[in-house]
Each structure stands twice: as C-alpha cells, then as structure tokens.
Specification:
Largest sheet: 6 strands, mixed
Order of helices and strands: EHEHEHEEEHEEHHHEHEEHEEEH
Strand content: 25-35%
Number of strands: 14
Distance between the termini: 24 Å
Shape: elongated
C-alpha cells in the first residue's frame, strides 16, 4: 500500500520529529512550517511569531503498519492539548498545537481521535484540526536535529521516549496473540525491562465474579494474582481493598506518591514506597477489549499494578502511557 501523510504541530519540531521517527510504520519525518501567510519562510522569519506559521512535522507512514488513529493517539501523548500557544518552555503562536490533513478522507478518523481526547480530558482540546494550506521544509540544520545534536534542547522528557520504546515493543510482541494471560505476561516483562520498576504485574478479577458481574465481599469477587515481574506478592485482594481494590472499585487510575499515606494500603512488600494502579476494561456487551475512551458499558477485568522502591515515582505522564499500553 502507498504511504500516506499527516502533519503534526506540537511545539518545537525537533522533539516531535525525533518522537515520530521512533514509531514503527513511520517511513519519513520532515520538520517544517505549516499554514502561514507567504511562501518559503525562513526560521528567522517564523521566529518573529507574526507569520502565521506553526512549527510542524510532516509524517509519512505505511497504513498497513500503523494506523492514523494510532499516530493521532501518540501525538496527544506528547502535547498538552489544553495549552494555547505554549508547549513546555516554548511560547508563541509558532508553537501552537495542530493536526493538519491533506486528504479529506482522513477527517472522520481525526475527528474521532479528537472526540476521544476531549472525553478523556473532560474538555475540548485547543489543538487545531484543519486542512493543510501549505507546508515548507525547514532548513537542513533542523532536519534530524536531535540525531545530529544528542544533547540538544528537547521539550519532551526522556521518560516519554522510554515509554514510546516500551509501547512499540508491546505492539510488536502482542501482534495477533489472543490469549489474555499471555498478553499480560508479555506486557509485564516488557514494561519491567524497559522502565526498571521494582514490581509490575496484573491482578485479574476472579472468573466467577467476572461472569456474574457482581461486587460482593463474601469470598468473591476478588483480584487474583496474574503474571508479574518482581518479588513474591499478595495472592488475592478484595474489592475496594488497598490501592488495587480501590482502582478496581472506582474504575480509574490511582497514583500514590507514598503508599504509607494511602488508607488501607496492603503491604505486600516492605520495599514498596510508591505505586500506580491502572484498570483494564472490557465491554459488557461484546466482551472485547475497549479503547481508553470506552463506553458506559465497560467493566474492569483486571488491574495493572506497579510499585517503586522510591517515593513519588509516578505522575500523570506515567498514567497516560500505562493507560495506552493496557488498552492494547
């Protein structure tokens, strides 16, 4: 199949280009200037912030290897979609966020991605969604800038690039495997290896409770230990008990900077200092894995539990990436 193209404006184009170069299925990336008011702008002109141009990266991709929906989802992972004309320390209209399309056929996919992000945020992104009016490649020294200058400025964190590598490896290894326990085992191993967390694993809602769809506390339902990496852990956790049981009950990701400050914390290991727990959802109607936007018919079928032996290890960035990974 022929390659397709999409244009992402996400702040400084050095980091955006370097990020998308790491996505399997992306065949080419080109930093440049999009949707301004005249032809062939220079960086010095765009830097004045009165030309209408946005620093933008043209991403060419093989749709057989990566979907436009996945690319758009990844784009939202690296921007603050509620920040107008600012990303990181970069401020000005040239650093505004946007998705610019050259084919009207892409619009329904992009609109769905924007709607899912609005639902996740609880607010509409200020990110532009517009047809591409013009695009001019940036000067040669901007191309592959972070490859040429490994210690150069980038508004994206090292954690972002580490999670991208993990996500890509998970996407590759899971491929067409359908067994959920095998998929959990692979994810636990890949995230443990890539992020060096103290403990990572899944707790599964016991089969009898998943089938009944009930939330009782008389021996069922319980979370039962699934595939994990790390020292021995608790075998079973009750509904609403500890961080895992609470994340299951409330069907939301919970970040705990200090586990000793969490009411009812279950100490499976005295070495655990901070924790994040991410629910895994299925759809009640079809029993299929849901995307992160989900629907009101979803229920929790498992949780991903990650512990650190350091305080305050996890934040909103970890939550976003881990929610994306478990959506696979």
């Amino acid at each position: 199949m022929e390659c397709k193209e999409i244009y992402f404006a996400g702040g400084c184009f050095w980091g955006v280009e370097h990020f998308f170069k790491g996505v399997t299925g992306v065949t080419s990336t080109t930093p440049g200037y999009a949707n301004g008011r005249f032809a062939n702008p220079t960086y010095e002109q765009v830097y004045k912030d009165d030309t209408g141009f946005a620093e933008t990266v043209r991403v060419e991709y093989n749709p057989d290897a990566v979907s436009l929906a996945t690319l758009c989802r990844l784009f939202f992972m690296i921007i603050d979609p509620l920040s107008l004309n600012r990303q990181g320390e970069d401020c000005g209209t040239r650093y505004r966020t946007g998705v610019y399309y050259s084919s009207e056929a892409d619009l329904p996919v992009l609109e769905a991605a924007f709607a899912a992000e609005a639902e996740r945020l609880g607010a509409d992104p200020v990110t532009e969604l517009l047809p591409l009016q013009c695009f001019y490649s940036a000067e040669e020294y901007h191309q592959d800038y972070l490859d040429k200058n490994p210690s150069g400025y980038c508004h994206l964190s090292l954690k972002t690039f580490a999670y991208l590598r993990v996500f890509e490896k998970v996407r590759m290894y899971l491929a067409e495997e359908t067994d959920p326990v095998a998929r959990m085992a692979e994810i636990a191993a890949i995230v443990h290896e890539g992020m060096k967390f103290f403990w990572i694993g899944f707790y599964r809602v016991a089969e009898e409770s998943a089938a009944a769809g009930k939330h009782t506390d008389a021996g069922r339902p319980q979370l039962v230990l699934g595939p994990f990496q790390g020292p021995p852990a608790c075998l079973r956790i009750g509904y609403g008990r500890g961080v895992c049981g609470t994340a299951w009950k409330e069907a939301r990701t919970i970040v705990v900077p200090d586990v000793e400050q969490f009411p009812g914390h279950i100490a499976c290991s005295s070495a655990s200092r901070s924790e994040i727990v991410v629910p895994v959802f299925v759809d009640d109607g079809q029993g299929q894995e849901s995307d992160s936007a989900g629907t009101s018919s979803r229920h929790v079928t498992a949780v991903l539990d990650i512990d650190s032996d350091r305080l305050a290890t996890f934040d909103a960035e970890d939550a976003k990436w881990l929610e994306l990974i478990v959506s696979l």
